[in-house]
């Protein structure tokens, strides 16, 4: 259920909060769901924060590669399009 909510949230929020933040949210929720499916604890505030930082560290370079190198127009939240 966590993974499904992450994917649905990503699809519905990508044009509102931008690619990087929506993918970070998707990653954070998906990791929690996969962790719970293994029977491990979902994680507290610290684990969720680490997952969110990891999500940003993954999605920001992906956004940059797609927009700058491949010239694919992805939704951003700022005027410069970085976030």
Distance between the termini: 27 Å
| Largest pleated sheet | none
**Overall body shape:** elongated
Spans with pLDDT under 50 lasting ≥5 residues?
none
- Our Rg estimate from Cα atoms comes to 14 Å
What series of H and E elements makes up the topology? HHH
Tally the helices: what do you get?
Answer: 3
Sheet/helix structural class: mainly alpha
Task: Determine the fraction of residues in helical runs and give it as a percent range.
Answer: over 70%
Mean pLDDT over the full residue set: 83
- Strand % is under 5%
The total of beta strands comes to: 0
Task: Walk me through the structure.
The protein has 83 residues and is mainly alpha-helical. The protein is 72% helix and 0% strand. It has 3 helices and no strands. The protein has helices at 2-17, 19-37, 45-69. Helix 1 (2-17) packs antiparallel against helix 2 and helix 2 (19-37) crosses helix 3 (45-69). It is elongated, with a radius of gyration of 14 Å. The protein starts with a helix and ends in a 14-residue tail after the last helix. The model has no long low-confidence stretch (mean pLDDT 83).
Summarize the structure.
By secondary structure, this protein is mainly α. Helices cover 72% and strands 0% of the residues. The protein has three helices and no strands.
